[in-house]
Amino acid sequence: MQTPSASFRAPEGRRFLWLLKGALMIGMIASLLKPGLPEHPDSSQYHGGRFNNAVTPQARSLWEGARLWWDFLFAKPEGTVPDRAIPVQVMTREGLIAAPDNSVWRFGHSTLLLKLQGTFWLTDPVFSERASPVQWFGPKRWHQPPITLEALPPIEGVILSHDHYDHLDHGAILALQEKVDHFITPLGVGARLMAWGIAKEKIRELDWWQQTRVGGVTLVATPAQHFSGRGLGDGNQTLWASWVIRGEGVNLFFSGDSGYFDGFKEIGRRYGPFDVTFLETGAYDKRWELVHMLPAQTAQAFHDLGGKWLYPVHNGTFDLAMHRWNDPLEQIARLAAEQQIPLTTPVMGEPLEVLSPHEGSPWWRD
């Protein structure tokens, strides 16, 4: 019988130590890059020196956290990464400029490009190779974006849901800053952008239920049930949010990241119905369902919000959970068929007109 110490000296043990060292190094690097974040005592979400959910998710014990990491690194099932190329429809600047108003394109994960009132808007732009503070370690993307940052037309605004690395990409923000007029963020995220050199006058920070108007587009920061942080010691120092996005004759909802909660009903009551709901559908697990919805909860959120069409996001780009890579889309397609939910699943880069959506193809299937 192999002793525990002998087992730990085996290749798996060495791999664990290497990965642990890498994770600790990433945490230290992220902490060193952390700006001094301001307090927000005027926000009803801010108390105890940090932002809070309306319903606080249960904290994990140290053992539970360690077991989760062990499972993520060493006990993953087969199929969490695709064994074939993700289909991507290449986009051009000329095609975007010629496209009709009220169009949307998905670049991957939760990155969307919206064309509203003749202007372009990006949600959670992530273009880097890895969703990580370093580009030599961390979740690696499965496909390239359908268009380069350099080829994008001028952007009226970037809408940010929170500061996690798979939603707030330092490299993309710096590359975009000269062609973006406005950055719309939850409280505290703007301080991160200013620390990176983004001009203060370009940034608008909102608390939950606050709104701002840019040209003909109205944006409302609405609640989400999640958390924030980019390093050791900065947990929940910035707010997280979902977004209502309204143009002339069009009403959209972007969930960012969220567990299922009663807030979806209130958002639907105040601002619904929505022509298209872009809802998180991926990177879920029963162990963290309070901060990332399971597919059945995504379907329920769609009903709560008063959605007309469901566009699942937060999938198809990064390996961030224990499920098979295509399970989010397979599960939500099954639920949509059972519950008569109009579902649209365009390939990355494929245009969709939000006032006359099409179903799209099941591109994730063999």
From TrEMBL:
Gene3D superfamilies: Ribonuclease Z/Hydroxyacylglutathione hydrolase-like
A Pfam family hit: Lactamase_B_2
Keyword presence, Secreted: no
InterPro entries, per database record: Metallo-B-lactamas, RibonucZ/Hydroxyglut_hydro
Highest rank taxon of the organism: Bacteria
Molecular function GO terms recorded: hydrolase activity
Keyword tags: Hydrolase
SUPFAM superfamilies hit by this protein: Metallo-hydrolase/oxidoreductase
Metallo-beta-lactamase domain mapped to chain residues: 122-314
PANTHER family: N-ACYL-PHOSPHATIDYLETHANOLAMINE-HYDROLYZING PHOSPHOLIPASE D
Protein name, UniProt field: Hydrolase
